[in-house]
Amino acid sequence: MNIATKRWLPHTVAAVGLLVLLYPLAWLLATSLKPADEVVTSLDLWPSHLEWSNYTTALDGVSGISVTRLLGNTLLIAVGAVVGNVLSCSLAAYAFARLRFRMSKVMFAFMVATLMLPHHVVLIPQYIIFNRLGMVDTYWPLILPKFLATEAFFVFLVVQFMRGLPRELEESARIDGCGAFRTYWSITLPLTRPALITTAIFTFIWTWNDFFTQMIYLFAPEKFTITLALRSFVDQSSTSAYGPMFAMSVMSVLPIVLFFFVFQRYLVQGMATSGLKG
Amino acid sequence: MSTVSTRAPARPAPATDRNPPSRRRRQVRERQWPAYVFLTPWMIGALVLTLVPMAVSLYLSFTDYNLFDPPHWVGLRNYTEMLTDDPRYWRSVGTTMLYVVVAVPLKLGLALAVATLLKNLDRGRAFYRSAFYAPSLLGASMSIALVWRALFNDGGTVSGILDSVGIHAGGWVGNPDLAVYVVVLLTVWQFGAPMVIFLAGLQQISPDLYEAAALDGAGRWRQFVSITVPMLSPVVFFNLVLEIINSFQVFTPAFVISGGKGGPADSTMFYTLYLYERGFTASHMGYAAAMAWMLLIAIAAITLILFRTSRSWVFYADEEGR
To answer: Which pLDDT tens digit goes with each residue over B273-305?
Structure first.
């Protein structure tokens, strides 16, 4: 191999790999704009003409509930989950990373162990609890747990980050008479911002993508999320309305794509550090 | 030590305290109650949404329960039925194991290969790193599962391409032998998350090590085996544990690709899908709870085995001096 090949080969491999990897996304976008007769008969990626009516059909939504409403519902749940996770996980993480209390080691070990706990073990009793509280078919079962720091992954992530912060600032704040709450709010929390942003973005995307919990807890079509609506759209129309179905799919992944473009630096770094400091 | 409960809160710590606080620590020492205030949301969650539900689900696993009538104690019947008298249960175990055994090594192998490739790029590394990571975020969505189903369906892109090169496999989604691999490929497609972790691990290996090895005459492959693999083994271990735990719980793609029913012929009846069907469609909540406990035992056992065996192949640089 001469020098030029050596330099260009990795780039070529990476570029070709990326094209293969992104093909399904290009297919999704192209199919959402295809006229009905081309979807099943043609293997061409690009449509002969752009069928924008797929999008107007999709905008009408499912069971008389518009896509705007469905996106609004999903946004409400996702924002509630983000606020809950950032608040409760940072509180718990501060106690684990910085405060001394009896049983701290036992509690921390328990928290880490729940990282492995399959959700299915607590699923049925949780369902019974929310059912007894009259919260089935409301958004509470999807939001309330996030305010109680049930996602150990994020508690752990924030603990690891806080442990890496220098203690000096906090200690001098303490000596100057700041209580634990003041120190947490004014010193530690601002320094923890990168980890909190990571928590917020991942919570948003995971809640947006979630299907299982939403399917179990929500029944009324007007409370549906975009994911649930997409599923009932598939059930109703089968393969006859591919275009509108994928138009709705595009609308449902659009927020994730936007989040990815805006925050990809935090996402990639958050993922990278989670594997190195364990 | 009967005086413990009557001890005044302000009394200084007894001399027998196992970890006497250092002088510096003592200066900033606080009472303990703020810690419990910080922990209140987490403790409520751990108790009400984790510990109590775990106990309840263990109890329910020994009952017949349909969510409406009171649970009826049946002893070990759910477990014995599952293990001896339910071929669909074993089918779901087999499908899930096949999926884990095929998907996890493929995904991690691809992740490591691409991470190594990107590490050697002189420019554009950040761009490729982000671009390869994108599927990891989108792949969990209903939309992408639908795309996958369409791509691998009869007359879809994949069967079209295979036809044109003379392989007439038809649609994979409707083929009981191939349907599970549609889910496998969707999982492998999301190799970006472990790749990002591998890349970060690779970048932490000191270039001095490679220079020294090159001076000693070690070739590329020798360097990879003797430096990269041992230095990266903690990261490999982390990714392996994480991916195995996650893979056992795959649901959305299996649900979508099989039309929610695990078909064709139960070939995509993954463990969690069968659990959902037993519990929420057929209203056998006790049986589903027993299945959840078997899943927990399996995950705990596999994690334990991984941790035990890791001692012989995971290399921690900071332990070297011991």
So the answer is: 999 999 999 999 999 999 999 999 999 999 999
Tell me if A180 and B114 make a contact (CB, 8 A cut-off).
no
Amino acid of residue A237: S
Tell me the torsion sign for CA atoms A121, A124, A129, A134. positive
List b or e across A210-232, with b for residues whose CB sees 16 or more CB atoms inside 10 angstroms. Answer: bbbbbbbbbeebebbbbbbbbbe
> What is the ipTM score, two decimals?
0.91
Q: Of B9-23, B46-60, B120-134, B245-259, which range is least confident?
A: B9-23
| Interchain pair A17, B132: CB under 8 A | yes
Angle at B98 between CA B92 and CA B102, to 5 degrees: 150
Please tell me the pTM assigned to this model.
0.89
Model pLDDT for residues A125-146, shown as the tens digit of each residue: 999 999 999 999 999 999 999 9
Closest CA to B132 of A45, A272, A198: A272
Read off the pLDDT of residues B187-198 as tens digits, 9 standing for 90 and up: 999 999 999 999
Compare all CA atoms of chain B with the CA of A209 and give the residue at the minimum distance. B141
Residue in the block written with tokens 């120190």 = A183
Asked if B208 and B121 touch (Cβ cutoff 8 Å), the reply is no
| Residue B16: pLDDT band with limits 50, 70, 90 | very low
Q: Six-digit token pair at A96?
A: 């684990």
Measured CA to CA, the distance from residue A109 to residue A88 in angstroms comes to: 18
Could A205 and B137 be called an inter-chain contact, meaning their C-beta atoms sit closer than 8 Å? yes
Q: State the Cα–Cα distance between residues B112 and B129, nearest whole angstrom.
A: 12
- The tokens 């064709």 sit on which residue? B264
Residue B170 pLDDT: 82
Residue found under tokens 């992740």: B111
Question: Does residue B286 contact residue B64 with C-beta atoms inside 8 Å?
Answer: yes
Residues whose CB falls within 8 Å of the CB of residue A210, separated by 6 or more in sequence, listed in order:
A142, A227
Of A17, A102, A124, the CB nearest to B279: A124
Task: Decide if B39 and A107 are in contact by the 8 Å CB cutoff.
Answer: yes
Assign 3-state DSSP to chain A and report helix, strand, coil percentages, each to 5.
75, 0, 25
Is B54 within 8 Å of A124 (Cβ atoms)?
Answer: no
pLDDT < 70 regions, chain A: 1-2, 40-42, 237-240, 275-278
Owner of token pair 């911002």:
A193
Enumerate helices (H) and strands (E) in chain B, giving the number of each. 16, 2
Question: B-chain residues within 8 Å CB-CB of A8?
Answer: none
* The one-letter amino acid at B52: V
And the tokens for B289? 């709870």
| B259: CB partners within 8 A, 6+ apart | none
Task: Measure CA of the first residue to CA of the last residue in chain A; give whole Å.
Answer: 41
Cβ atoms of A80 and A143 closer than 8 Å:
yes
pLDDT value, residue B279: 94
What pLDDT, in 10s, does the model give residues B49-74?
999 999 999 999 999 999 889 999 99
Q: In this complex, is the C-beta atom of A149 within 8 Å of any C-beta atom belonging to chain B?
A: yes
Contact, A29 vs B133, CB < 8 A? no
Q: 3-class SS at A139?
A: coil
Angle at B61 between CA B57 and CA B62, to 5 degrees: 130
